[in-house]
Amino acid sequence: MSDASNAALLDVRDVSKAFGTVEVLRAVSLEVKRGEVVTIIGPSGSGKTTLLRCVNFLESYDSGSIRIDGKEVGYRDAGTRQHRSERDLAAMRAETGMVFQSFNLFPHLTAAGNIMLGLRKVRGKSEAEARQIAEHWLGRVGLAHKADSLPAELSGGQQQRVGIARAVAMEPKILLLDEITSALDPELVGEVLAVVRSLAEDGMTMLMVTHEMAFARDASSRIVFMADGGVSAVGPPAEILAAEASNERLRSFLARFRASHF
Amino acid sequence: MGYTLNFNLIWRHFDKLWGGLLLSLELAVISIAIGIVIGLVLAVWYVSAGRVVRSIIAAYVEFIRNVPLILLVYLVFYGLPTVVDIAYSAPTSFVATLSLYSGAYLVEVFRSGLEAVPRGQLDAGKAIGLTPWQRLIHVRLPTMLRITLPALSNTFLSLFKDTSVASVISVPELTYGAQWINFNTFRIVEVYLVTTAMYLLTGYVLLFALRLVERRFRAAR
To answer: Residue ranges of the ABC transporter domain (chain A) (predicted)?
Structure first.
């Protein structure tokens, strides 16, 4: 299935989803290749976060398919719309990492404990081994000295870096980043983005929803512009920014964005 | 007033009160332990169950909450053995009643605690690939416990006071001991003054200890 090295690692095809009568995703298709960093931008309510949450099936979708490494995510193969068993779903989700806007650390566990939980319970590693991996990743995000701190004792930026370490320590095939700097004070954004950048340099495959336009431009292989639940434009950063002239929605999004951010 | 306080007779029978206090504590501890198990199991079941199970659990909770405890004690001790062929001692019967009673209140406490666990934490548990059972044990319950600990302390305190109801079926706990002394010495003011002080003091000590546990728990890793 994934014989060619340029085959898509993540293949989203014609995914649609409605909350009641509101269509949040309309036949969205997009691909992420191994080692690519793909950024999704777009106005709020355009379905970015919903799409991301469909990729690890935190949200179900009504039609279309999402495949990671050729394997359908939330539904059993063979064309049925039957949900996978919870056990199956858990195993699928262990292959994707997710970092959340509101960090979502487990408040009763230390920084190291947060990272170790999945390693112990999902990956079946020993306490010592899990601890070692946790310390390695805490070092990578610059928090080696905070291993035994509780989330409540950490700043927002530090919590988010633990959140990233928790996700990547599981060695996921793809990392999903959901507006991970939106809840941070401006002066803390840089430290988190620096970590993401270094992961990208290591070749980590990432799908990222962000409002950090400069970061999207500098760090992405491709940018996806979403509007009204559909993909309005896709391409390398330079191309997307050039497409502004011909894409009315993109132009108004970027104009509003510039007005509020610069 | 021509009444002079005389505590001598109370001190002579103080073993009735002291033994009663210890039994009251024992009844409360055993009942809340069983009640916690009932409450946890039913609360977890409730949040994941369908309509039928939910209504059955809700019916149990509503029944217990709307019937006076003393009536439940009579029902279980006098009523049940006449209908079904079972026999038990008064303390056993009371513990069973108080367990069911506290269980019903704790279902509510735990259920709202489970629902108060932020959805983001559950998402995070899903995202790292935990199974539903693992999410319950490692994510939901620890957070729920921290949320509900103060309510749990309060339930235990009121349960301790509720053990006084056991006196109506002659379980020799603290209030029963007080009644016994009253009937045999007629020093009604003295005996109930001492008994009140004993409930009050024990309650304060318990509250202090439980608040310490809560604080420790909140700071613990």
So the answer is: 10-253
Which residues is A158 bridged to in the sheet? none
Q: How far is A179 from chain B (nearest CA, A)?
A: 14
Q: How far apart (Å, rounded) are the C-alpha atoms in residues A238 and A236?
A: 6
In terms of CA atoms, which chain A residue is nearest residue B141?
Answer: A108
Q: Is A167 on the interface with B (CB under 8 A)?
A: yes
Q: How many CB pairs under 8 A join A and B?
A: 80
Contact across the interface for B124 and A110, Cβ inside 8 Å: no
Q: Which of A186-190, B17-21, B97-101 has the lowest mean pLDDT?
A: A186-190
Residue A5, pLDDT > 50, answer yes
Instruction: Chain A: give the shortest CA distance to residue B151, in Å.
Output: 19
Residues of chain A in contact with residue B132, where contact means CB-CB under 8 angstroms, are 86, 90
Domain range annotation of chain A:
1-85+175-181+193-262, 96-171
Looking at beta carbons, which residues of chain B come within 8 Å of A89? Answer: 126
Residues A201-245 have pLDDT tens digits of 999 999 999 988 888 888 899 999 999 999 998 999 988 888 877
Burial of A6 (0-12, 13-18, 19+ CB in 10 A): exposed
Task: State the pLDDT confidence band at B215, using cuts at 50, 70 and 90.
Answer: confident
Q: CB-CB: which of A93, A96, A100 is closest to B120?
A: A100
Q: How far apart are the first and last CA of chain A?
A: 46
* CB B18, CB B189: distance < 8 Å: no
Instruction: Using an 8 Å CB-CB cutoff, list chain A residues near B139.
Output: 106
Q: What are phi and psi of A35, to 5 degrees?
A: 85, -5
User: How open is the CA angle B150-B116-B69, to the nearest 5 degrees?
Assistant: 50
C-alpha B55: how far from chain center: 24
Domains of chain B as residue ranges with CATH: 8-219 (1.10.3720.10)
> Exposed e or buried b for every residue in B138-176, given b needs 16+ CB within 10 A?
bbbbbbbebbbbebbbebbbebbebbbbbbbbebbbbbb
A86 and B CB contact within 8 Å:
yes
Q: A1-85+175-181+193-262: what CATH class?
A: alpha beta
